[in-house]
Amino acid sequence: MLSSFRKQDKKDEESSTSGNPYKNLEKASVLQESRTFNETPVNARKCIQILTKIIYMINQGEQLGQTEATETFFAMTKLFQSKDMMLRRMIYLSIKEMSTVANDVIIVTSSLTRDMTGKEDSHRGPAIRALCKITDPSMMQSVERYMKQAIVDKLPSVASAALTSSVHLMRQGPEVVKRWVNEVQEAVNNDNIMVQYHALGLLYQIRRSDKHAIRKLIIKFSKAGLRSPYAYCFLIRIAANLINEEGEGTDSPMYDFIDSCLRHKNEMVIYEAASTIVSLKCVTPKELSSAVNVLQLFISSPKPVLRYAAVRTLNKVAIQYPAAVTACNVDLETLITDSNRSIATLAITTLLKTGNEAGVDRLMKQISSFLSEISDQFKTVVVDAIKSLCQKFPRKHTVLMTFLANMLREEGGYEYKKAIVNTIISIVEENPEAKEAGLAHLCEFIEDCEHTSLATRILHLLGREGPRTTTPAKYIRYIYNRVILENAPVRAAAVSALAKFGAASEELLPNILVLLHRTTLDQDDEVRDRATFYYQLLKHSDKALNSAYILNSMNVSLSALERLLHRYTMEPTTKPFDVRSVPIETVHVEQPKTDINIGVGLPRGGTESKTNREDTYGEQLAAIPEFAHLGPIFKSSLPVDLTESEVEYVVRCIKHVFSHYIVFQFDINNTLNDQLLERVSVQMDGSAEGFEVVHYTPCQVIKCNDTGSTYTLVKLPDDSSAVTGSLACTMKYTVKDCDPATGEPDDEEGYADEFVLEDVEVTVSDHVQKVLKTNWSASWEEIGAENELEDTYTLSIATLEECVKKIISYMGMQACERSDKVPDGKASHALYLAGVYRGGHDVLVRAKMALGGTTADVGAQAITMQLTIRSTDESAVQVIASAVE
Amino acid sequence: MGLFDAFIEWLGLRNREANVLVVGLDNSGKTSLLNFLRPLEVQTNNIVPTVGFSVEHFSCHGLSFTAFDMSGQSRYRTLWANYYRTTNAIIFIIDSSDRTRIFVAREELQQLLSHPDVSKRNIPILFFANKMDTRDALSDIGVSSALSLEDITNKSWYICSSNALTGEGVVTGIEWLSSAIKTSHEQGKK
Fold first, then answer.
1. Which of A63, A175, A432, B113 has a CA between 20 and 30 Å from the CA of residue A544?
2. Which sites bind Mg(2+) (chain B) (predicted)?
3. pTM here?
4. Domain housing A494
């Protein structure tokens, strides 16, 4: 009795000192306590507490060592002798937590299988989940029988647990789970809506790779009529995925199914169908209207959730198809005053996108009335809406710009401020009329800006755009203020911006020199270095120097530069480091955001990040000894398909261009499940054009449903001005038949076979890397007319836009000075392109084109183009010129 | 609670509890034997190879047993050692019809006996020469000599032939085990 009193006292004390009793746990003492598990009889209450501590500790990120985890785990297994319900469930949780750290966790397999088939219903589901967590591929066979039974169990909780666990097991042993398909199919017909949903999910996972089977599955269940709205939503997502992947139109039966769901009786299903339809790639205004009609009904629903969902989706639709949403405008107007501010914000921004120019002022007024009440996240939505408005109504820029400037002055987090600054920057870049006003607002903003990254961005922009305005002098004050007042990174950016003014303008040069000279005494190394560097450069007032080192930055890939410099310092050499051996940074092409992802669709595989693509290729190739002497990769092309997508072997080719060689990488996917390929190589023939195959690196084995890579090394033709052409490709390999289940080959021998692929084209653009010259004309002067080539062509292309697009894609060069955008209604245009030719030679192209001219066909539109090419290398000029012919 | 407990103990009303470890090669009949000891209504006809271990409860002669039924498959035998320390008795089951693998059983027994958690303690070991009904089964004496049980000097042990399916011989063995545990318990008290 006394002891229990004391315990209580102690407890009170603990709870009064700290709110969380588990706050100051020590791993060693908790593990020490876990020895209690070995006692008989089991003290359930105490053990539950200890297990809680252990789970808490693991979830707080405490790392258990393998031996201590195993020891604790085995002590815990002894608790299976207790029949205490709570304790048993804590054991399940602990097993799941420790399954990855402890050894021999399979020791509890039999205990768990007994619980999952036992009489205690509340133990069965958790036991299944714990069992699947400890099951490794080698154990799959032994649990199979139990899982099959559990999937078709009468109890919904058991069946659901088995189904969801099976989805996880798919990762371990898909082959075994696939054998349970009959049971899963039975579970789809279960009356319980959750079981039905989970069963459908597993069925999809099992059939996933077989598009035809998925198609049949959808058609079957759309007719059979599922009870579960969740299952319906899932079917809609699968169907949408299929339509998008296969590029089907709205005439497909999959679309009919989604469309029919718009008339389902459950609101969730209706919404899912509507939001799926609007995000389909193939959707046309006609189909859109039916989905929008449904959403329109939701707008006037009394349920806030539905209103929110509908208006959010409409908001996204309005970005791409404003016309389709116009029909809802009247209903949206009523939502402006909705008591839920999130709904109101979305309604207003939707109206902003769909409305006409006259309504903008009114809506902006409305929104500013409650702007202070909404969260940053929704303010960002407003900013996005304003951005699209500016693109739509360029004339409204004064109203919108003032509004943005006001928003910029108010309180807000980094993300919010970033969105505003991005919007202003994009307006400045798109709309020349708004440029001066926008720059003035930004100048004001950096006077009091706490975000270093934003300040440096703005300074960079000022350096680029400022010198070209009518009165560049007025920006100098703002920039120099930064040099005096700000932290080191901002000061450094300000110095660079100042130097750009100095390089661009003769008048300002003396003043800039004075300012830079003062900054050479800065206390920060970087700032001082930059100031000294620019001061010395500007003193020469040499155009070529200015262009190369101030106005246009170095365009090498920074990660590659770092790697190569590191390698250079590792090996002692007297040879100076050659910057030209560094791969050039690919210009990040900004895609207009057309996809409206509203959170529907199934999770897709991660997209390959483009920035590091070439680095990874570089490492892959460097690992092959035959390619070691080739030097760094100049350019890797995007993968090109050499086969249809439905054939036995799907082959993609990537061209890696080196200074005198090309390595063709063939990624071969063996889609057959009963054949194994060995010694795979791709024979190439390009002798007619002077390409010479030097070496084949075959891929030793490509297993069933697996991908392998083989490489072919080709030497470029000796004539350096004729480096394009097409090469015939034939895949040669040895086939071995094998057992689809095990993947083991049936016989030793196999037979040789070959497979003809499409030709690989080597084009001009393979030899050229895009480079963005921020100041193109300065570079043009710098290179000079030494290797100039000028010619006039007549092209039978109807519009200037098309002509610009074609030239860019043929030459593979980057358009500078925004010259890729042709203003409306103009009859002539000048296109400025920049690039680096294989071997590191700068190439610049000026194409002046005008509508008119005559071609062979009478009546056809034609364009006359005067093409001027300059480069530091003569053959580069020849090759680029050949791209036009 | 102490007083009340002591009173019950004094009256001998409470079942004393004992942990028993059941080991032996795979397919020797451990799970079947324990299945026979379970109450009639929860017995099962479907015995599958144990993976890891499972826990059984049964009582006999005033003793309540908690039996840890270990898996006998070779890859799991190393896991037995985790349970030696906390056990009050060991039941070692031998398939007396499997003359080739009886030497494997002997190997495993030697390892068990030399384990520090077992060798230093006086824990009773009960051997079942199981599957006595099969035609070419060894007798309990034959099994005993094949395992050289006579070398065990510091522990009480007992061997009997059994048939786990019909229960023949099982009760005799368990009765010995209960009395042996009681004795060792009393010795421990002194």
1. A432
2. 31, 50
3. 0.61
4. 395-405+415-551
